[in-house]
Every structure is written in structure tokens, then in C-alpha cells.
Amino acid sequence: MALSEDIKKKLQFLSTVYQQLQDVKNAPTLLDYKYNIAAVLFNEGTQVVISAARNDLPESFNGVFPPTEEIGDSGTTIHAEILCLDGAKALVEGASIMVTDPLCPNCMKSVIAAGVKKIYITEDGFTQGNWYNSADENGVERQRYFDDVSLKLAAYAGVQVCKIGGKGGEDVSCDIIQPQEKPPMSKARVEEYDAGTLSAMVCNAQDRGRPYAVAIANGPKQRRYIVMASESYVPGMSDEKAQNIREHFKDVPGGLRYRLKVDALSSILSACAYFGFSLSGEQVYISEIPTSRCIVNAIGAGVKHFGLAHKEALSQKSKYALDAFYKLETHGIVKASVINDIPAFLEN
After folding, report:
1. Does residue 146 sit in the same domain as residue 234?
2. For the domain that residue 92 is a member of, what is the CATH number?
3. Cβ atoms < 10 Å from Cβ of 179
4. Last residue of a domain, one of 178, 197, 221
């Protein structure tokens, strides 16, 4: 059966993206890291590549930490999918992403929160991918994390997941793993910047008592925006669905290692990608101490000053995070300060 010109054009573009993905993965690097994973973020409608990246250290870590270093309970590298969102200088809502390996649950949450509607994963990622075909320190095969967590998060959010391979051109193949139902929507609150609006939003968030994060971002036409988010599930998720996912890991000591909600800080970063914003400064305020992984990802997005409500280790996760802040502050990479006047902190 002959292909229509529109289908041929789409396949040719996907083939071009596929080749760029391989080029990014195979480019020379000084980073000696076991997970060489690449990603390309693109708009299928306009056939424009938005950004491309592979797992890498934040720029400020170069020459300071090796990729095997521990920052709290996190590694030093940022995953390719997150770096693509950080590097997006255009609206990500409705975009697609192509990745060399199946996505871990944290990356899946972030790309969904950023409005990505379609995910392509290369066939080689399932058969040869180092992450997918390995086990964590508890002996849990990471394939389970993709099959029983990442794919379900995509399904609930209505994000299409495809396996892509082939020789290129019209020979590119695309098998749907998870059909698309509806594009995800951002759960962040965004308002055009005004000092009074910022103060009111902060007061309202404090009254609600839920963990939240807030930052000021630059948007189109040189306008500034307030971006605020609370910890929440990706679209389509619920407490009941989260419990069903956790049930699949009852055999694992300590249960499922991944949080199923998107933390407030990650929600801010994903919201910026969703709307095509960039942080206007180097500071962000978080009412709850973020995880070590979130800290590393935020550094990759340009955050250098973390405003906190307190510096008390209320859990093992927050103890690790405070250790991470101490190590990073010792090397002059970030500052972590207890902030009382949040608007003044963000406006500086």
C-alpha cells in the first residue's frame, strides 16, 4: 500500500530525529558514565527540534565531582530527558520526545508534567539499554520500574508511548506500546508578575499548609511570570491508582523506591518547560526540603540559591538533602538559606 505524502514526510522527519539521537549518544565525551542515554525533544507538527542532550553533569560540577560521586543520596548526573526540558527555549506543551532507553519513573513524571504528549523509545533501548537491563542495589530489575510505574503513569496521563526502530527514511518503524487518550495539562499556577500578586500567592500557599515552590520566570515578549506549584500527581493519577502501583512492589524490602507524586520543585521546572519560560534569576523558594535528586536537577536548570522554610532533618530523605546542600555549599556551587521574606528573596 502506497504511503501518502504526509505520512512519508512524517516518517522522514522521525528518521532525521532518530539519526540526531544516535549522533548525540555516540558523540565523543570526557564523561565516563555507565548510562550513556540520549534524548531529543521536538515538535512533530512544525517538524522542529527543540533540544537534544544526553546524561551529563551540571556545568558547575565539571572538574569538581566525578559522575560516580554521591550528592546526598543522588548521583551527580542529570538524565537526558531532564536536560532536554532545561534546554528547551520554546513551548514544550504538545511536544514529543525520543529517547535511547526506557524512561525511569522520575523522568516520566517530569516529561508528563512538562506537557509532552508522545514518547518514542528506540528498540535497542529495550534489548541493549544499560538502565533497562540492569538491577538496582536491592536486586530489583529496572524493567519493572518502567513496566509497572513509568508506563502506568503515561497511561493515566494519556501520553502515547511508541517503540521506534528501522533503517531510516520510510523504513522507520513505530509500534505503539501505550495509546494516547488526551494531552497532559500543567498543574502549576502561573500569573503575570506583580509584587502584590506574588505576596498574595505566597500568603495563600502558606495558609493552605501544603508543600509548595515558587519562582519568577521570563516568558514571551519580555514579560515576567510567577510560577507556583504544590506537590501533586501527574494528570490522571489518584491515591487509589498510586496504591495499586505500590502493590506491585510488596515483595521489595521497603516497597517502591520512587515517589509517585511530582514534588513542588520539579513541578516548577516542568512548568517552565511547559509554558516556554526560563527562570529569571538563580533563586527558587521551596517550603519543604527537596530531595537530593531534585537539588541536582535544579542546579542543572540554573538554580544557585535555594530558599527554605527551615533546615531541620524531618526524615531520612531530608537528612540526605541537607548533607547534599552542605557538600555543595562547601564547594561554592549553591547557597541554601532559611528565608522569612519570600517575595523579597525572589525579587532580588
Report:
1. no
2. 3.40.140.10
3. 11
4. 178
The model's pTM: 0.92
- Averages of pLDDT over each 10 residues, the chain, 348 residues: 72 91 86 83 95 94 91 94 93 94 96 94 89 89 95 91 70 61 71 95 90 94 94 92 96 92 95 94 95 96 96 90 97 96 93
Answer whether residue 183 is part of any domain.
Answer: no
Q: What's the total number of domains in the chain? A: 2
171 and 85 assigned to the same domain: yes
Range of the domain at 314: 189-347
- Note whether 164 and 198 are same-domain residues: no
